Amino acid sequence: MTPSKLALVTACIGSALGTALLSPSPALAAAPQNPSGSLFRGLFGDGLEQDHGIKVHGWAQAGWTYNDNGSDDVSKQAFFNSDEGFNFNQFALAIQREPKGNVIGRVGPFPGPMPQEADWGFNVTALYGKDARFFKTYGFDEDLGVNRSADSDDENFNIAQAYLDFYFPVLGGSNLMLGVFHTPLENEIGFALSSPAPTDFYSHPYSFMHGPAKHTGALYSFKLPQEEGGSMLGFELGVVQGWNNMQDPNGDLDVIANLRWRSADFRTWVDWENIYGNGAGDSFAECACGSPFPAGSEDDDLTRYASYLTVSQVLDERNRVAVELSYGEQEGAAFAGFADKRDATWYGANLNWYHRLGESLMWNSRAEWFHSDAPAHVEMANIDPQTGIPDPSWGSFYGFTTNVAWTPVPNVRLRPELRYDIHSGNGRDAFGGGEEDSQLIGSFDITLFF
What we know:
Layout: H1 5-17, H2 38-44, H3 47-52, E1 54-67, E2 85-97, E3 103-104, E4 108-109, E5 119-129, H4 145-148, E6 156-168, E7 174-182, H5 206-209, E8 214-223, E9 232-240, E10 254-262, E11 268-278, E12 283-284, E13 289-290, E14 303-316, E15 319-330, E16 344-358, E17 361-372, H6 378-381, E18 395-409, E19 412-424, E20 438-449
Antiparallel strand pairs: 1-2, 1-20, 2-5, 3-4, 5-6, 6-7, 7-8, 8-9, 9-10, 10-11, 11-14, 12-13, 14-15, 15-16, 16-17, 17-18, 18-19, 19-20
């Protein structure tokens, strides 16, 4: 799903410290050329990028998955596609201009003095592939013809992002985003910013699937004034149309409030991210879009809250770790009655380790635990497509993932990955078409950057 915040974190660290060795993502390895935008520069020259700061770039990703449970079903909570075999995940094309400043929206503050001139930018990113069906925006691109005619196993198309980006020399430096943008929440946020894309893992944690993908609205990020050379503190405040919606039927806006702290040496990042609002009536089964948490009708007032605490630490030139704690709750969750509850709560923890084996070789590993006290997410509901009757899973989920990512040339990433999942809880078994409580998945994906 795009460059992840994790990959971006280390790209920023590498830039701030002046060494590419601190970056955990394979696409950021030392290379004779920058793969992001290389095709456009090769065809039309670098005048647009050099003279105006406008970059045209993209990526394409395809992969294969295989499981050990004797069925075509793979963990829908971890993979956007649910079928074993080949999947064309993403073809993305973006045109963007990044404003010059010491604050990046959704990322946080940077060291150095505050630039004194205002600046502006924009981002428009289009996405086609099987992953695109999970990033449609209700009231914006969910009703395009290619999406109306597609079933659950077909490719979709969406405008993943379309926003204006402004830098202002106020407070210690400020950034304002207006439009449709990927969420500033969660450790893996999809493709919020430029390469490497889509993420450091082919599969995704359960906490990622239980968070929002994108928002429509405004996000204001600012850095507090500080003494030069000290630690940095930034805040984000947002007002958005709920989760994955441009039109929110309940008519209530959601509030985003985030805190971001950076150590003076930029090796330690702490992010506390929160979203709060009315979650009623904003999930739409007919287009498989909107919020993934069905709850009540548009006339109800049912609170939804999600919070994420992430700590990232560079250990040395080859190792970085990141720990994320997540918590969420939905009042009046539609499927909670299967657990004899009215409301649903979910929480968990992820531990990620990134180890650089060489300039073009990374070893990434992740351990996760996730618990839901009642079924809430539509993927957990396992709705029978013929009868429409839910047969949900809930309880504790454990996942262990490891991969080796090789970048033989700057524009190509090859990545074999192994993932093992365990479900311990009530309701339907989560894997193998409801027949298995564990699953081993092998996958291999190829990503091209251009």
